[in-house]
Amino acid sequence: MATATEGWTSELARELADDALERFLRYVRMDTQSDPLSDSYPSTAKQLDLLRLLADELREIGLDDAALDEHGYVIATLPPTIERDVSAIGLIAHVDTSPDVSGASVDPQIVQFEGRRIPLLRDPEQALDPEADPELTRHIGHDIVTTDGTTLLGADNKSGIAEIMAAVAYLRRHPEIEHGPVRVGFTPDEEIGGGTTYFDVDAFGAEVAFTLDGSTAGELQDETFGALKVTVTFHGRSAHPGRAKGQLVNAIKLASAFVEHLPREGLSPETTEGREGFVHPSRIEGSVEGCEVTMILRDFDEEKLAGYEALVRRLADETVAGEPHASVEVEVERQYRNMHEYLKDVPRAISVAEEAIRAEGLEPLRTSIRGGTDGARLSERGLPTPNLFTGQQALHSRHEWICVRDLGSAAATIVRLVERWASA
Predict the structure, then answer these.
(1) CATH, range 226-335
(2) Considering only CA atoms, which of 424, 422, 418 is closest in space to residue 171?
(3) What is the pTM of this model?
(4) Residues known to be catalytic
(5) Which pLDDT tens digit goes with each residue over 335-363?
(6) Which CATH number fits domain 11-224+338-423: 3.20.20.60, 3.40.30.10, 1.10.1420.10, 3.40.630.10?
(7) Residue 16 and residue 165: Cα distance in Å, rounded?
(8) Rounded to whole angstroms, how far apart are CA atoms 122 and 30?
(9) What is the pLDDT of residues 260-310, one digit of tens each?
Protein backbone atom coordinates (compact mmCIF):
# COMPACT_ATOMS: atom_id res chain seq x y z
CA MET A 1 0.00 0.00 0.00
CA ALA A 2 1.05 3.59 -0.49
CA THR A 3 3.00 4.92 2.47
CA ALA A 4 1.79 8.00 4.34
CA THR A 5 4.89 10.17 4.18
CA GLU A 6 5.48 13.79 3.36
CA GLY A 7 5.69 15.09 -0.18
CA TRP A 8 2.28 14.22 -1.62
CA THR A 9 0.79 16.84 -3.92
CA SER A 10 -2.42 16.75 -1.87
CA GLU A 11 -4.35 14.75 0.71
CA LEU A 12 -6.67 13.74 -2.13
CA ALA A 13 -3.73 12.27 -4.04
CA ARG A 14 -2.64 10.32 -0.97
CA GLU A 15 -6.16 8.93 -0.56
CA LEU A 16 -6.58 7.96 -4.20
CA ALA A 17 -3.11 6.41 -4.53
CA ASP A 18 -4.09 3.33 -2.53
CA ASP A 19 -7.07 2.58 -4.76
CA ALA A 20 -5.19 3.35 -7.98
CA LEU A 21 -2.24 1.19 -6.90
CA GLU A 22 -4.41 -1.78 -5.96
CA ARG A 23 -6.17 -1.66 -9.31
CA PHE A 24 -2.93 -1.12 -11.21
CA LEU A 25 -1.23 -4.17 -9.67
CA ARG A 26 -4.20 -6.33 -10.65
CA TYR A 27 -4.45 -5.00 -14.19
CA VAL A 28 -0.75 -5.36 -15.10
CA ARG A 29 -0.84 -9.06 -14.21
CA MET A 30 -3.24 -9.60 -17.11
CA ASP A 31 -1.51 -10.13 -20.47
CA THR A 32 -3.12 -7.72 -22.95
CA GLN A 33 -0.41 -7.43 -25.60
CA SER A 34 -1.69 -6.44 -29.04
CA ASP A 35 -0.50 -8.03 -32.30
CA PRO A 36 0.33 -5.92 -35.38
CA LEU A 37 0.15 -9.00 -37.66
CA SER A 38 -3.36 -10.01 -36.63
CA ASP A 39 -6.37 -9.56 -38.92
CA SER A 40 -8.89 -9.60 -36.06
CA TYR A 41 -10.27 -6.71 -34.01
CA PRO A 42 -9.24 -6.48 -31.28
CA SER A 43 -6.01 -7.96 -32.54
CA THR A 44 -5.79 -10.34 -29.56
CA ALA A 45 -8.64 -11.99 -27.66
CA LYS A 46 -6.78 -11.62 -24.36
CA GLN A 47 -7.41 -7.87 -24.38
CA LEU A 48 -11.08 -8.70 -23.92
CA ASP A 49 -10.33 -10.32 -20.56
CA LEU A 50 -9.38 -6.97 -19.07
CA LEU A 51 -12.10 -5.11 -20.96
CA ARG A 52 -14.78 -7.42 -19.52
CA LEU A 53 -13.35 -6.95 -16.04
CA LEU A 54 -13.41 -3.17 -16.42
CA ALA A 55 -17.03 -3.21 -17.56
CA ASP A 56 -17.92 -5.27 -14.48
CA GLU A 57 -15.99 -2.96 -12.14
CA LEU A 58 -17.59 0.15 -13.62
CA ARG A 59 -21.04 -1.31 -12.99
CA GLU A 60 -20.00 -2.18 -9.43
CA ILE A 61 -18.97 1.46 -8.93
CA GLY A 62 -22.43 2.54 -10.06
CA LEU A 63 -22.00 3.33 -13.76
CA ASP A 64 -24.98 1.20 -14.68
CA ASP A 65 -24.72 1.62 -18.45
CA ALA A 66 -21.16 0.26 -18.64
CA ALA A 67 -20.93 -2.22 -21.51
CA LEU A 68 -18.45 -3.95 -23.78
CA ASP A 69 -19.49 -3.53 -27.41
CA GLU A 70 -18.87 -5.81 -30.39
CA HIS A 71 -15.64 -4.01 -31.29
CA GLY A 72 -14.02 -4.31 -27.87
CA TYR A 73 -14.76 -0.82 -26.52
CA VAL A 74 -15.94 -0.34 -22.96
CA ILE A 75 -18.09 2.77 -22.68
CA ALA A 76 -19.79 4.06 -19.53
CA THR A 77 -21.31 7.21 -18.05
CA LEU A 78 -20.80 8.80 -14.66
CA PRO A 79 -24.09 10.70 -14.17
CA PRO A 80 -23.99 14.43 -13.39
CA THR A 81 -24.49 15.71 -9.87
CA ILE A 82 -25.90 19.08 -10.98
CA GLU A 83 -29.10 19.99 -12.79
CA ARG A 84 -27.79 22.80 -14.97
CA ASP A 85 -26.79 21.94 -18.51
CA VAL A 86 -23.08 21.03 -18.71
CA SER A 87 -21.48 19.34 -21.69
CA ALA A 88 -19.99 15.89 -21.18
CA ILE A 89 -16.25 15.41 -20.72
CA GLY A 90 -14.53 12.16 -21.73
CA LEU A 91 -11.77 10.10 -20.07
CA ILE A 92 -10.02 7.53 -22.27
CA ALA A 93 -7.24 4.95 -21.83
CA HIS A 94 -6.13 1.88 -23.76
CA VAL A 95 -5.84 -1.66 -22.42
CA ASP A 96 -3.23 -3.13 -24.77
CA THR A 97 0.51 -3.23 -24.13
CA SER A 98 3.30 -2.91 -26.66
CA PRO A 99 4.25 -5.86 -28.87
CA ASP A 100 7.92 -4.85 -28.43
CA VAL A 101 8.44 -6.69 -25.11
CA SER A 102 6.62 -9.60 -23.50
CA GLY A 103 3.61 -8.70 -21.39
CA ALA A 104 3.00 -12.24 -20.13
CA SER A 105 3.36 -13.18 -16.44
CA VAL A 106 4.13 -9.62 -15.34
CA ASP A 107 5.35 -9.67 -11.72
CA PRO A 108 5.33 -6.09 -10.41
CA GLN A 109 7.73 -5.12 -7.62
CA ILE A 110 7.32 -2.19 -5.21
CA VAL A 111 10.58 -0.69 -4.00
CA GLN A 112 11.57 2.52 -2.29
CA PHE A 113 14.04 4.37 -4.46
CA GLU A 114 17.03 5.63 -2.45
CA GLY A 115 18.93 7.20 -5.32
CA ARG A 116 21.00 4.14 -6.18
CA ARG A 117 20.90 1.63 -9.01
CA ILE A 118 18.13 -0.96 -8.52
CA PRO A 119 18.87 -4.44 -9.94
CA LEU A 120 15.67 -6.08 -11.13
CA LEU A 121 14.67 -9.22 -9.30
CA ARG A 122 14.83 -12.02 -11.87
CA ASP A 123 17.49 -10.55 -14.14
CA PRO A 124 20.06 -8.67 -12.03
CA GLU A 125 21.84 -7.56 -15.19
CA GLN A 126 18.78 -5.42 -15.82
CA ALA A 127 18.52 -2.42 -13.49
CA LEU A 128 16.90 0.94 -13.01
CA ASP A 129 19.84 3.32 -13.18
CA PRO A 130 19.45 7.04 -12.41
CA GLU A 131 22.44 7.79 -14.63
CA ALA A 132 20.61 6.30 -17.60
CA ASP A 133 17.17 7.59 -16.54
CA PRO A 134 17.44 11.05 -14.92
CA GLU A 135 13.71 11.12 -14.19
CA LEU A 136 14.42 8.68 -11.35
CA THR A 137 16.34 11.35 -9.45
CA ARG A 138 13.07 13.26 -8.93
CA HIS A 139 11.71 10.31 -6.95
CA ILE A 140 14.28 9.69 -4.23
CA GLY A 141 12.47 8.37 -1.16
CA HIS A 142 9.38 7.48 -3.17
CA ASP A 143 7.77 4.07 -3.66
CA ILE A 144 8.02 2.99 -7.28
CA VAL A 145 6.62 -0.01 -9.13
CA THR A 146 9.01 -1.86 -11.43
CA THR A 147 9.11 -5.05 -13.45
CA ASP A 148 11.05 -8.13 -12.36
CA GLY A 149 13.36 -7.64 -15.36
CA THR A 150 11.77 -10.23 -17.66
CA THR A 151 8.76 -8.30 -19.04
CA LEU A 152 7.48 -4.82 -19.54
CA LEU A 153 5.35 -3.45 -16.70
CA GLY A 154 2.27 -2.30 -18.56
CA ALA A 155 2.10 1.14 -16.99
CA ASP A 156 1.50 2.18 -20.59
CA ASN A 157 -1.46 2.36 -20.29
CA LYS A 158 -2.81 0.45 -17.30
CA SER A 159 -1.73 3.34 -15.09
CA GLY A 160 -4.21 5.52 -16.97
CA ILE A 161 -6.92 2.90 -16.57
CA ALA A 162 -6.30 2.56 -12.82
CA GLU A 163 -6.27 6.34 -12.34
CA ILE A 164 -9.53 6.81 -14.23
CA MET A 165 -11.17 4.00 -12.26
CA ALA A 166 -9.98 5.38 -8.91
CA ALA A 167 -11.11 8.90 -9.80
CA VAL A 168 -14.52 7.79 -11.06
CA ALA A 169 -15.07 5.62 -7.97
CA TYR A 170 -14.20 8.60 -5.75
CA LEU A 171 -16.57 10.90 -7.63
CA ARG A 172 -19.34 8.32 -7.35
CA ARG A 173 -18.79 8.12 -3.57
CA HIS A 174 -18.88 11.91 -3.26
CA PRO A 175 -22.02 13.26 -4.94
CA GLU A 176 -21.44 16.57 -3.17
CA ILE A 177 -18.74 17.29 -5.77
CA GLU A 178 -20.50 19.21 -8.53
CA HIS A 179 -19.84 17.93 -12.04
CA GLY A 180 -21.56 17.27 -15.32
CA PRO A 181 -21.76 13.96 -17.19
CA VAL A 182 -18.48 12.09 -17.55
CA ARG A 183 -18.01 9.58 -20.35
CA VAL A 184 -15.46 6.82 -19.80
CA GLY A 185 -13.89 4.89 -22.67
CA PHE A 186 -11.42 2.00 -22.62
CA THR A 187 -10.04 0.97 -26.00
CA PRO A 188 -7.99 -1.90 -27.48
CA ASP A 189 -5.09 -1.89 -29.97
CA GLU A 190 -3.75 1.65 -29.43
CA GLU A 191 -0.16 0.41 -29.53
CA ILE A 192 -0.60 -0.87 -33.08
CA GLY A 193 -2.49 2.16 -34.35
CA GLY A 194 -6.00 0.70 -34.24
CA GLY A 195 -7.40 2.17 -31.06
CA THR A 196 -10.02 4.36 -32.73
CA THR A 197 -10.86 2.25 -35.79
CA TYR A 198 -14.48 1.69 -34.71
CA PHE A 199 -14.78 4.33 -31.98
CA ASP A 200 -18.15 6.11 -32.39
CA VAL A 201 -17.39 9.76 -31.63
CA ASP A 202 -21.01 10.86 -32.01
CA ALA A 203 -22.32 8.15 -29.69
CA PHE A 204 -19.62 8.94 -27.13
CA GLY A 205 -21.18 12.37 -26.93
CA ALA A 206 -18.44 14.37 -25.21
CA GLU A 207 -17.50 17.94 -26.07
CA VAL A 208 -13.85 17.19 -25.29
CA ALA A 209 -12.01 14.14 -23.98
CA PHE A 210 -8.64 13.48 -22.39
CA THR A 211 -6.45 10.46 -22.92
CA LEU A 212 -4.59 9.46 -19.76
CA ASP A 213 -1.40 8.30 -21.46
CA GLY A 214 1.31 10.84 -20.66
CA SER A 215 4.38 10.44 -18.49
CA THR A 216 5.86 12.98 -16.05
CA ALA A 217 3.63 14.45 -13.34
CA GLY A 218 2.08 17.69 -14.57
CA GLU A 219 2.49 16.83 -18.24
CA LEU A 220 -0.15 18.13 -20.64
CA GLN A 221 0.19 17.51 -24.36
CA ASP A 222 -1.75 19.06 -27.21
CA GLU A 223 0.64 18.25 -30.06
CA THR A 224 1.76 15.03 -31.70
CA PHE A 225 3.82 14.05 -34.68
CA GLY A 226 2.09 13.88 -38.03
CA ALA A 227 2.56 10.32 -39.26
CA LEU A 228 2.83 8.39 -42.52
CA LYS A 229 3.31 4.67 -43.02
CA VAL A 230 5.22 3.92 -46.20
CA THR A 231 5.61 0.50 -47.80
CA VAL A 232 8.37 0.22 -50.42
CA THR A 233 8.19 -3.03 -52.40
CA PHE A 234 11.09 -4.02 -54.64
CA HIS A 235 10.44 -6.53 -57.42
CA GLY A 236 13.37 -8.57 -58.72
CA ARG A 237 13.66 -11.63 -60.91
CA SER A 238 14.38 -15.14 -59.71
CA ALA A 239 16.70 -17.62 -61.41
CA HIS A 240 18.59 -20.77 -60.46
CA PRO A 241 21.64 -19.46 -58.59
CA GLY A 242 23.91 -21.86 -60.48
CA ARG A 243 22.86 -20.37 -63.82
CA ALA A 244 21.88 -16.88 -62.74
CA LYS A 245 24.53 -14.70 -64.42
CA GLY A 246 22.81 -11.91 -66.28
CA GLN A 247 19.40 -13.19 -65.23
CA LEU A 248 18.89 -12.95 -61.50
CA VAL A 249 17.89 -9.65 -59.92
CA ASN A 250 17.89 -9.96 -56.13
CA ALA A 251 15.10 -7.90 -54.52
CA ILE A 252 16.67 -8.43 -51.09
CA LYS A 253 19.83 -6.66 -52.27
CA LEU A 254 17.77 -3.87 -53.79
CA ALA A 255 15.95 -3.34 -50.51
CA SER A 256 19.25 -3.45 -48.61
CA ALA A 257 20.78 -0.84 -50.92
CA PHE A 258 17.74 1.38 -50.44
CA VAL A 259 17.98 1.17 -46.64
CA GLU A 260 21.73 1.79 -46.82
CA HIS A 261 21.11 5.14 -48.54
CA LEU A 262 18.65 6.43 -45.94
CA PRO A 263 19.93 9.33 -43.81
CA ARG A 264 22.02 8.31 -40.80
CA GLU A 265 23.33 11.47 -39.18
CA GLY A 266 19.89 13.06 -39.16
CA LEU A 267 16.29 12.12 -39.94
CA SER A 268 16.58 8.90 -37.95
CA PRO A 269 15.12 8.13 -34.50
CA GLU A 270 18.57 7.38 -33.09
CA THR A 271 19.92 10.82 -34.05
CA THR A 272 16.94 13.15 -33.45
CA GLU A 273 15.12 14.69 -30.51
CA GLY A 274 12.75 17.51 -29.64
CA ARG A 275 10.94 18.76 -32.71
CA GLU A 276 13.15 16.93 -35.20
CA GLY A 277 11.39 14.40 -37.41
CA PHE A 278 12.65 11.17 -38.90
CA VAL A 279 12.49 8.54 -41.65
CA HIS A 280 12.58 5.10 -40.05
CA PRO A 281 12.63 1.62 -41.64
CA SER A 282 10.80 -0.57 -39.12
CA ARG A 283 10.48 -3.90 -40.91
CA ILE A 284 12.00 -5.70 -43.90
CA GLU A 285 10.89 -9.05 -45.26
CA GLY A 286 10.76 -10.89 -48.54
CA SER A 287 12.65 -13.03 -50.99
CA VAL A 288 14.73 -12.75 -54.17
CA GLU A 289 11.65 -12.03 -56.25
CA GLY A 290 10.11 -9.48 -53.95
CA CYS A 291 11.18 -7.65 -50.81
CA GLU A 292 9.15 -5.18 -48.77
CA VAL A 293 10.47 -2.39 -46.55
CA THR A 294 7.96 -0.96 -44.08
CA MET A 295 8.72 2.55 -42.89
CA ILE A 296 7.31 5.21 -40.58
CA LEU A 297 7.77 8.91 -41.38
CA ARG A 298 7.23 11.45 -38.59
CA ASP A 299 7.32 15.23 -38.15
CA PHE A 300 5.34 17.98 -36.45
CA ASP A 301 5.34 19.99 -39.69
CA GLU A 302 3.24 18.75 -42.63
CA GLU A 303 5.49 20.43 -45.21
CA LYS A 304 8.54 18.63 -43.84
CA LEU A 305 6.63 15.34 -43.75
CA ALA A 306 5.81 15.75 -47.43
CA GLY A 307 9.52 16.29 -48.05
CA TYR A 308 10.34 13.00 -46.32
CA GLU A 309 7.88 11.19 -48.58
CA ALA A 310 9.51 12.77 -51.64
CA LEU A 311 12.94 11.65 -50.35
CA VAL A 312 11.78 8.04 -49.97
CA ARG A 313 10.28 8.01 -53.45
CA ARG A 314 13.45 9.45 -54.97
CA LEU A 315 15.74 6.95 -53.23
CA ALA A 316 13.47 4.06 -54.23
CA ASP A 317 13.52 5.11 -57.88
CA GLU A 318 17.28 5.61 -57.84
CA THR A 319 17.74 2.11 -56.39
CA VAL A 320 16.17 0.41 -59.42
CA ALA A 321 17.43 2.87 -62.02
CA GLY A 322 19.65 1.14 -64.56
CA GLU A 323 18.24 -2.31 -63.83
CA PRO A 324 15.65 -3.07 -66.53
CA HIS A 325 14.42 -6.23 -64.81
CA ALA A 326 13.68 -4.52 -61.48
CA SER A 327 10.82 -2.31 -60.38
CA VAL A 328 9.58 -0.65 -57.23
CA GLU A 329 6.23 0.39 -55.76
CA VAL A 330 5.75 2.98 -53.01
CA GLU A 331 2.49 2.98 -51.05
CA VAL A 332 1.76 5.77 -48.56
CA GLU A 333 -0.84 5.57 -45.81
CA ARG A 334 -1.78 8.45 -43.53
CA GLN A 335 -1.73 7.24 -39.92
CA TYR A 336 -2.55 10.42 -37.99
CA ARG A 337 -2.11 14.19 -38.08
CA ASN A 338 -0.66 16.57 -35.54
CA MET A 339 -3.57 17.02 -33.15
CA HIS A 340 -2.55 20.63 -32.50
CA GLU A 341 -4.26 21.49 -35.81
CA TYR A 342 -7.58 20.71 -34.11
CA LEU A 343 -6.94 21.55 -30.45
CA LYS A 344 -5.89 25.13 -31.14
CA ASP A 345 -9.56 25.87 -31.82
CA VAL A 346 -10.68 24.68 -28.36
CA PRO A 347 -8.45 26.60 -25.91
CA ARG A 348 -10.90 25.91 -23.07
CA ALA A 349 -9.83 22.26 -22.99
CA ILE A 350 -6.22 23.22 -22.34
CA SER A 351 -6.94 26.05 -19.90
CA VAL A 352 -9.21 23.88 -17.72
CA ALA A 353 -6.62 21.08 -17.71
CA GLU A 354 -3.94 23.55 -16.63
CA GLU A 355 -6.20 24.79 -13.82
CA ALA A 356 -6.73 21.22 -12.63
CA ILE A 357 -3.02 20.46 -12.65
CA ARG A 358 -2.24 23.62 -10.67
CA ALA A 359 -5.04 22.84 -8.22
CA GLU A 360 -3.29 19.54 -7.56
CA GLY A 361 -0.12 21.41 -6.58
CA LEU A 362 1.77 20.79 -9.82
CA GLU A 363 3.03 23.09 -12.51
CA PRO A 364 1.65 22.29 -15.96
CA LEU A 365 4.36 20.87 -18.19
CA ARG A 366 3.39 21.56 -21.81
CA THR A 367 5.21 19.11 -24.08
CA SER A 368 4.87 17.68 -27.58
CA ILE A 369 4.52 13.94 -28.19
CA ARG A 370 7.19 12.37 -30.37
CA GLY A 371 4.62 9.83 -31.43
CA GLY A 372 0.85 9.61 -31.54
CA THR A 373 -2.09 8.80 -29.30
CA ASP A 374 -5.69 7.78 -29.76
CA GLY A 375 -6.28 11.48 -29.14
CA ALA A 376 -4.65 12.46 -32.42
CA ARG A 377 -7.18 10.47 -34.45
CA LEU A 378 -10.10 11.41 -32.22
CA SER A 379 -9.23 15.10 -32.54
CA GLU A 380 -9.13 14.77 -36.33
CA ARG A 381 -12.56 13.11 -36.23
CA GLY A 382 -14.14 15.92 -34.22
CA LEU A 383 -13.50 14.98 -30.58
CA PRO A 384 -10.74 17.30 -29.27
CA THR A 385 -8.58 15.06 -27.08
CA PRO A 386 -5.44 16.36 -25.33
CA ASN A 387 -3.24 13.98 -23.34
CA LEU A 388 -2.69 14.07 -19.57
CA PHE A 389 0.08 12.58 -17.44
CA THR A 390 -0.08 9.22 -15.68
CA GLY A 391 3.44 8.93 -14.24
CA GLN A 392 4.49 6.06 -16.55
CA GLN A 393 8.20 6.01 -17.42
CA ALA A 394 10.66 4.05 -19.63
CA LEU A 395 7.82 2.74 -21.76
CA HIS A 396 7.89 -0.40 -23.90
CA SER A 397 10.85 -1.83 -22.02
CA ARG A 398 11.83 -4.12 -19.16
CA HIS A 399 12.92 -0.94 -17.34
CA GLU A 400 9.39 0.46 -17.24
CA TRP A 401 8.37 1.96 -13.88
CA ILE A 402 5.92 4.29 -12.21
CA CYS A 403 5.89 6.24 -8.94
CA VAL A 404 3.01 5.47 -6.56
CA ARG A 405 2.67 9.16 -5.72
CA ASP A 406 2.25 9.97 -9.39
CA LEU A 407 -0.57 7.43 -9.59
CA GLY A 408 -2.31 9.34 -6.81
CA SER A 409 -1.57 12.77 -8.28
CA ALA A 410 -2.94 11.78 -11.69
CA ALA A 411 -6.13 10.35 -10.19
CA ALA A 412 -6.60 13.50 -8.11
CA THR A 413 -6.02 15.68 -11.17
CA ILE A 414 -8.82 13.82 -12.96
CA VAL A 415 -11.20 14.62 -10.09
CA ARG A 416 -10.23 18.29 -10.21
CA LEU A 417 -10.52 18.36 -14.00
CA VAL A 418 -14.05 16.96 -13.95
CA GLU A 419 -15.08 19.43 -11.24
CA ARG A 420 -13.58 22.44 -13.02
CA TRP A 421 -15.07 21.52 -16.38
CA ALA A 422 -18.52 21.99 -14.86
CA SER A 423 -17.68 25.46 -13.54
CA ALA A 424 -15.58 26.77 -16.47
Answers:
(1) 3.30.70.360
(2) 418
(3) 0.90
(4) 96, 190
(5) 999 999 999 989 999 999 999 999 999 99
(6) 3.40.630.10
(7) 10
(8) 19
(9) 999 989 999 999 999 999 999 999 999 999 999 999 999 999 999 999 999
